Amino acid sequence: MARVVSLLLAALVVLLARGASAAPAGLVLRPLAGAAPLELVPQPGAFLGRFLVENRGATSLVVEALELRDGPDDAPRLPAGVEAEFSDGASTVTLAPGESKLVDVRWVLPTPIAARTLWGHVLVRVQGVEGPPAAMGFHAEVAGAAPLGGHLPSSLIVTPLVGALVALALWLFGARRLRGLRWVGVGVGVAQLALACVAYRAFSPSFTRYDGNEGVQMLERARLSPSLGIEYALGLDGPALSLVFLLAILLVTAALASRGRGAHLASFWALLLLLDAALTGALLALDLALLGACLAVTLASVFALIYAQGAARAPAFRFATYALVALALLGCSGAYLSAHAGAAYLADGALAPRAWSLFDLYHADFAGSTAQLFGARAVTVLWSALFVGFAIIAAGFPFHGWLDDALEAVPAPLALMLGGALPALGVLGLARLCFGALGHAAGWAAPTLVVVGALGMLHGALTALVQAELRRFAASAVRFQVGVALVGLGSLTGIGVEAALMAVVVSGLGVALVLGVAGALDRRLARTRLAELGGLGRELPMLALVAAAGLATVLGAPGTGSFLALFMALLGAAARHPWLAIVASLAVVPMAVASARVFHRVFFGELPAALRESPLLEPHGGHPPPLAPGERVALGSLAALVVFLGFWPRPLLSLLDAASLDLASRVVSDPTEIAAAPPPESLAPAAREARRDSPARAKLSLFRAEPSDHLERPLRDGTVRLR
Predict the structure, then answer these.
(1) Helix, strand or coil for residue 301?
(2) Of the candidates 711, 662, 660, 700, which has an alpha carbon nearest to the alpha carbon of residue 112?
(3) Nearest to residue 394, comparing CAs of 308, 313, 503?
(4) What angle, 0 to 180 degrees and rounded to 10, lies between the N-to-C axes of helices 494-525 and 650-665?
(5) How many angstroms separate the Cα of 502 from the Cα of each of 432, 572, 669, 671?
């Protein structure tokens, strides 16, 4: 295994060794004021900026065209209303040595405004010069569109980093054990939750990739490593924002409910908050290198936290093996994609040596590539490698071997993050890269994806039936829910993709409830094996209610948000893979039996005599102590939330609707499975602005498309995109 990882890392180094083409000699682009990127200034109903095109060479240059770096109508880079032209209206300009010309960049705001943040490039093509043209980056921000001065995504990452530094400082200055240290985690989680609420308030659920910016809002961009072409690029789409909420809720729950191991250790909280920051960065990263760095920090933090438990060295090294394989696969695949994605530009217009931006990868023509890897088409090999890498992170079948031992060995706060957050991150990464950048290959892999998902559901349900320990049951529940997500993704329908994204959010909450119950039992009874428990329903009635909500959620029972996700995933898959959908639905039966078995063994019957006579219960008269106030607030609120989402899922679905259709539409022409015949005039060539401003709109409903304020897109093949 070590030799395989070494070879993969060596291949990564080779893939990175590739240079960039140079801009035309003597041509210089510079804003009239300040440095690039060009900042557009607000005007009545528009934004305006100007830059100079200068010839500093010894010979004349002929600028034959000014172009906006945009995409086709079905995948625009820019919102409507953006234009660039020479100030004097000329179309072709000859620049003598030392001469310059002024260029106007204008963004005429449509009504209503869809995109509120603008990042783009003006390409300056010089006659007789081969290779990528020179470019000027530009930026504009509608007032009030970006909370916290446009740095809200960064704030979501910096907040847990500050908490980690506080805990680290306490550890370095000798205060290694502090009774109230968990309140640092509570404060960080509440702050992240507040920032997520601010983002939710400014978020536009109807914004999609057809409005520009690939459907991402609150964009931040800055040069990070110009020599490598790496940017500090962050942004929020619906799935990312929903998972930011999940992370914040998990952190608050973990901190409030934490007692015992790790609760008073500064080093533990420093690493846990570093893990939270890295997870948040991975959710928000729009640069492939930045995403890889965040994933590396995430997996390294998890390894350090597991290893620090002393008796958990074997699970730590098992996790490290899986993590290295995942990083090697993702790193090599990402490096190959970035090296073959074509010309790339940084935010200021500088030509990058390779395309690390996810936006550039989304627009690259990988479908037309005939390159071969290991005797097969490169795109299929890359898709498979990315799938395995993200499936390892998500602990999905059959790459789940690290999770069971890890959940059993670590403290409750870390278990909540491992069981609730990592699977969600893995599924989101799979959707973004395998559907976003390699969507055409997703159609090839879809049947296999549904097969693996259905087997994962069956494996999770059947292993849950025989698990003898509560945290291992939670690991089986993770496999079951990741299987649901894979079935949904493999359906290649908008409803299935939405089910996958919803499943990992809601099941993350349900798994956290089960693990929270396991942590509460461990602190009171020092045991979580089912055979050693019983009769706790009478002793701890609130814990029984919490456990019922958690078990119902991981099962997908009616009344919980995961029921809707399960139903949507099976419904989406049934359209193309009916027999596989039936097989997947059969897994619900053993999972229901397993959940009922766990609840019956733990909360029914009588409290075992060995427990009642335990020294742990002797100070409390042979009864388990009641839940502490922090545990009641954390676990009770979490249980109420999963029930709330079961009866009113619209707040979550509103975040996922547009992104689900966007992802599915990268693979199939009709992600809603609605036969919509376009009128004949929509087949004729027309200006993209006219198409964008057409009044016909539709949106994703649970089972069909309904009239709404989303644009209807005629595409190049004559179909209509409903969004």
Answers:
(1) helix
(2) 711
(3) 503
(4) 130
(5) 15, 14, 23, 17
Which run of H or of E encompasses 167? Answer: helix 152-172
- Euclidean distance between CA atoms 299 and 164, whole angstroms: 16
| C-alpha distances in Å from residue 246, one per residue of 205, 281, 448, 508 | 18, 14, 29, 7
Check if the beta carbon of residue 331 is closer than 8 Å to that of residue 325. no
Three-state DSSP state, 123: strand
* Closest by Cα among 467, 459, 425, 430 to 445: 430
What's the pLDDT at 113?
80
C-alpha angle 168-173-174 in degrees, rounded to nearest 5: 100
Residue 720 has pLDDT above 50, yes or no: no
What is the number of other CB atoms lying within 10 angstroms of the CB of residue 5? Answer: 15
Angle of the 422-429 helix axis to the 470-490 helix axis, nearest 10: 20
Q: Where are the alpha helices (DSSP H) in 308-438?
A: 313-339, 358-363, 378-394, 403-409, 412-420, 422-429
- pLDDT grade for 262, boundaries at 50, 70 and 90: low
Q: Residue 286: CA atoms inside 13 Å, Cβ hemisphere, count?
A: 26
Q: What is the DSSP letter of 359?
A: H
8 A C-beta contact, residue 121 and residue 112: no
- Torsion over CA of 465, 471, 475 and 477, rounded to 10 degrees? 60
Poorest-confidence range of 79-88, 368-377, 518-527, 541-550? 368-377
Q: Please, are residues 556 and 504 in contact by the beta-carbon 8 Å criterion? A: no
Task: Give the model confidence (pLDDT) of 115-143 as tens digits.
Answer: 888 899 999 999 888 778 999 999 998 87
**Half-sphere exposure (Cβ direction) of 139: Cα atoms closer than 13 Å:** 18
pLDDT digit string, tens, across residues 394-443: 999 999 989 998 998 888 888 999 999 999 999 999 999 998 888 888 88
**Cα 719 to Cα 68, 213, 674, distances in angstroms:** 26, 23, 11
Is 495 within 8 Å of 571 (Cβ atoms)?
A: yes
Judged on CB neighbours under 10 Å (0-12, 13-18, 19+), 621 is exposed
Q: Cβ neighbours of residue 615 under 8 Å, at least 6 residues apart?
A: none
H helix or E strand, kind and range, residue 101:
strand 100-108
pLDDT class for 674, splitting at 50, 70, 90?
A: very low
Helix, strand, coil abundance in the chain, percent, nearest 5? 55, 15, 30
Mean pLDDT of 557-586: 90
Name residues whose C-beta falls within 8 Å of residue 505's C-beta, 6 or more positions apart in sequence: 242, 243, 245, 246, 424, 561, 652
**How far from each other are the two terminal CA atoms of the chain, in whole angstroms?**
45
Instruction: Report helix, strand or coil for 597.
Output: helix
Secondary structure letter of residue 430 according to DSSP: I
Q: Amino acid identity, residue 27?
A: L
Q: Are 210 and 74 in contact (CB under 8 A)?
A: yes
Place of tokens 């979550």: 652
The candidate with the shortest Cα–Cα distance to 429, out of 206, 597, 250, 663, is 663
pTM across the whole model:
0.88
Length of the chain: 723
Q: Kindly state the DSSP code that residue 529 receives in the 8-state scheme.
A: B
Tell me the Cα Rg of the chain. 27
In the beta sheet, which residues pair with residue 225? 230
